[in-house]
Amino acid sequence: MSSALRIASFLPSATEMICELGLYDDLVAVSHECNFPVEVKGKPVVVKSAANYSAMTLEEIDRTVSERVSQGKSLYILDEKSLQNLAPTLIVSQDLCKLCAVSGNEVTQVLGSLKPKPEILWQTPHSLEDVFSDFLALGEKTGTRERAQARLWDARRRIEKVRAATAALPKVRAFFMEWVDPVYCGGHWIPEMIGWAGGTDPIARPGVDSVRTAWEDVTAYNPDVLVVAPCGFDTQEAARQVELLKTRPGWRNLSAVQNNRVFAVAANAYFARPGMRLVDGVEILAHLFHPESCPWDGLADAFVRVPL
Fold this sequence. Notes:
The chain is of the alpha/beta class. The protein contains 12 helices and 14 strands.
């Protein structure tokens, strides 16, 4: 690892990876959404949101985001002047989801003003294996390959332990909800996480974006377990959003509701961000699906059974 290494992270998952590799001191810039580990909150912020979503309802957030994307407008603002002053030698960004970070086009435009020109490491994962590849690539780029390999070995060991524990158990019929109003299904790495955890979710979309899902499709499927994981929110906020679902027709008739198996989870921490904590997410799902066979020894606020 070079002492001249200066890293700017434009997305929270990359920030988590950077710190996982012991590169906290080399991290010189982050986005406004980077909040883990907590120490990174003191780092200079060079990526900010282009709109204030704090006072909006979920429906208003979805509509605003959709409108900006359809009009070709960015969801983020890149502080070019601060970035110039911080002079990063390596920028880690992504070109996967316009909702998650500045797009590739915006990063490319800013590159022309940075001297010397930094290297760019793109992260565009569609599966957990892609996430692991991104983590290893970051290790190779920063001289921490051995540490990355050790972390990956442990991650694979934990996933295999879950798979072995659930292999002979009946598959649990689940629905993973990435947004509540309107309803979005799970996408990208979520379906494979559900499968390893001993569940099945035929509405989820492996390897591609989550999409709006008709509530009638959810009620027709009638899942035995409902996992509410709105992107961008923690466990308590997700639990509060379940109140919106309680007003929908057919809510009380859902098997998950009748059997008290509706759970709110910390989506940002364990499901939405393509980082190494997705492995924790697999273990959480396994516990929600098969609590007798798969204990959860992590943080107590990772999930909550929603009072019905």
